[in-house]
Specification:
CATH class: Alpha Beta
Largest sheet: 6 strands, mixed
Structural class: alpha+beta
Distance between the termini: 48 Å
CATH topology: Nuclear Transport Factor 2, Chain: A
Helix content: 25-40%
Order of helices and strands: HHEEHEEEE
Strand order of the largest sheet: 2-1-6-5-4-3
Radius of gyration: 15 Å
Strand content: over 45%
Number of strands: 6
């Protein structure tokens, strides 16, 4: 790939990740599922402050189906910053994103907190399938988690 093609791919991946954050926060579950490869591997085992082996999911549909009821009564704001994207071939790439999220749970939400404010990094791989980039693997590591 030449420099222009690499820059185009990076811009497309940045747009993909922006869509991920927006769909998550708007609870657009079909839109969220569409940013992922169907055979997604989602590793959120280290995303809550303590390792939880149940937070490793194989498959985009299953990941979104499990996530939607948990966040139904939780307002979320996700921000991604400072992407480090490497194009590894015309159809593959890797990325690391600094992130911050804030979550506010309404009464009855199935989460063990009222508020969560956290910082960390998304570690991802991407594939270009059918002319569009998708997230193939996603792992969230946390640097700090504050809950009330």
């Amino acid at each position: 790939m030449d420099d222009a093609q690499c820059l185009t791919a990076i811009a497309e991946i940045e747009t993909l990740k922006a869509r991920y954050f927006r769909c998550m926060d708007e609870k657009d579950w079909p839109g969220l599922e569409a940013v992922f490869a169907p055979d997604l591997v989602a590793d959120f085992r280290d995303s809550t402050g303590t390792r939880d082996e149940t937070l490793l999911t194989h498959g985009a549909a299953l990941y979104v189906a499990n996530l939607a009821p948990i966040l139904r009564d939780v307002t979320t704001v996700h921000h991604g910053h400072m992407p480090e994207i490497d194009i590894t071939s015309p159809t593959t790439a890797t990325g690391v994103w600094a992130m911050e999220d804030l979550l506010w749970a309404r009464d009855g939400a199935p989460v063990p907190f009222k508020t969560l404010h956290a910082f960390g990094h998304y570690h991802e791989t991407y594939e270009k399938r059918g002319g569009a980039w998708v997230i193939k693997t996603i792992r969230l590591s946390r640097l700090r988690v504050d809950v009330t």
